[in-house]
Amino acid sequence: MINYPSSKLPDIGTSIFTVMSALANEQQAINLSQGFPDFNCPEPLIDLVSKYMREGFNQYAPMAGVPGLRENISTKTEKVYGYRPDPDTEVTVTSGATEALNAAITAVVKSGDEVVILEPCYDAYVPVIRLCGGVPIFVSLALPDFHIDWDQVKRRISSRTSLIILNTPHNPTGAVMSKQDMDTLANLIEGTDILVISDEVYEHMVFDGQQHYSVLQHPQLRKRSFVISSFGKTYHTTGWKVGYAVAPAVLTAELRKMHQFITFCTPTPLQMALADFMEEETHYRNLPDFYQGKRDFFNEQLKGSRFEIVPSAGTYFQLAKYDKISDEYDLDFAKRLTREAGVAAIPVSAFYHDKTDHKYLRFCFAKSEDTLQAAAAKLVQL
């Protein structure tokens, strides 16, 4: 009989996104759970991928990314954030933002290091920290608007803190960090060796006239930070799994050591196509208005419901509080909603390490108006 090794992550199961999408498929429910569009990416982008495949760009790309794509990432970063990273030493193309996060965490977290996590948080952070022997230190965002309580953060920082992970615009809450937040963080960690990972994959989805303030715009922070972005989110191509990381040369060198042994490189024709397509700024410049229109349409459709809605400030997710409908645990309510009402959402307790339940569901509004209208029609009947 084989004595199989014990699990390295014994308390980690299948992700909530996979669970709820599978249940949605099983029940033929409208899937507003997992964060992907139900509409296609721009046709010219598809044509470019086909063009480069036919031209023979089907072999390994350079490990750090196609040079033309890294150059255009650098140019775009300067246009949007006023800072131009060196495309050769400070920009790395990865197989999705999740791989970039994995490589960044693995590059800098050592056994016994403490990593400050603001929760609710995306579920990819904590398992990698633990696999590195690090210790997650959790700080809850403050209700009702999920802002950062910097006094709490300060209290949780110790001599063992090596890293703080940010996410703005924030998944799942839609909260957006301000320049004041960045200034506070910079003051808090000044004189320390604490590094920062800033997960900014929803950078072009900020609403109501607000601006996304990137770590790259903050001179004191960017010299100690990895900033993670996602072509999948920006160009409606989540299935392509193409992202990138911008970091100082010394941090980039360490990230690339990890990247080369995780995926080595990212599909060449996708990189070539994105390099060409991103030269046209119209798409990402128009993205805030595009997704605000979808947010507003969905929320307008929900006006007659018993859900409590505070419009999301960013991302393509909308939180809805359901305590006037049910006192069920949010996972139970989400599953019942999928089975009985035919609409799938994500319970926000899944984003807390201790499964804290504040009676919120997360709905994805990166969908066609027909999909959003059909889902809302079911939700208002509750």
What would you note in describing this structure?
Residues 29-379 form the Aminotransferase class I/classII large domain. GO terms for molecular function: kynurenine-oxoglutarate transaminase activity; pyridoxal phosphate binding. Belongs to the class-I pyridoxal-phosphate-dependent aminotransferase family. The chain has 382 residues and is of the alpha/beta class. It has 2 domains: 16-41 and 284-379, Aspartate Aminotransferase, domain 1; 44-277, Aspartate Aminotransferase, domain 2. Helix content is 40%, strand content 15%. The protein has a 7-stranded mixed β-sheet, with helices on both faces. A 4-stranded antiparallel β-sheet has the order 9-10-13-12. A two-stranded parallel sheet has the order 1-11. A hairpin with a 7-residue loop joins strand 9 (308-309) and strand 10 (317-321). Helix 1 runs parallel beside helix 13, helix 2 crosses helix 11 (268-277) and helix 12 packs parallel to helix 14. The longest helix is centred in the last third of the chain and has 20 residues, at 282-301. It is globular, with a radius of gyration of 21 Å. The chain starts with 15 loop residues before the first helix and ends with a helix. The relative contact order is 0.17. The model has no long low-confidence stretch (mean pLDDT 97).
User: Helical stretch count?
Assistant: 14
Low-confidence stretches: none
Quaternary structure type? single chain
**CATH architectural group of the largest domain:** 3-Layer(aba) Sandwich
Number of domains: 2
Secondary-structure element series: HEHHEHEHEHEHEHEHEHHHEEHEEEH
Span between N and C termini? 53 Å
Helix content: 25-40%
- The general outline is globular
CATH class of the largest domain: Alpha Beta
CATH topology of the largest domain: Aspartate Aminotransferase, domain 2
Question: Strands across the major sheet, in which order?
Answer: 2-8-7-6-5-3-4
Keywords: Aminotransferase, Pyridoxal phosphate, Transferase
Cofactor: pyridoxal 5'-phosphate
Protein name: Aminotransferase class I/II-fold pyridoxal phosphate-dependent enzyme
Pfam families: Aminotran_1_2 (PF00155)
